[in-house]
Amino acid sequence: MPLPTCRDMSELATDYMEGALPWRARFAAWRHLRICGMCRAYYDQLARLRRLLARMPAPPAADALVAEVLARRRTDDANG
Known about the structure:
- The chain has helices spanning 6-18, 23-35, 37-55, 62-78.
- It has 80 residues and is mainly alpha-helical.
- The chain has one domain (6-78).
- The longest helix is centred in the middle third of the chain and has 19 residues, at 37-55.
- The chain is rod-shaped and about 70 Å long.
- The protein starts with 5 loop residues before the first helix and ends with a helix.
């Protein structure tokens, strides 16, 4: 497999990070990252972002959020 272009790498980065590429594509992406500082920086930013997002608490369930909004509205309506 030929080396992917920088544009290809922007599309492959997540699959590469997750190990979801076939071995030839993974090896080609690895080689590209070894020689391209811009793509390596993009990949590093993506990895940092994923780590930060993984540390964030999960959003409330939609049903619980709707129930909370409706309860607050009823309270507000009752208080005038």
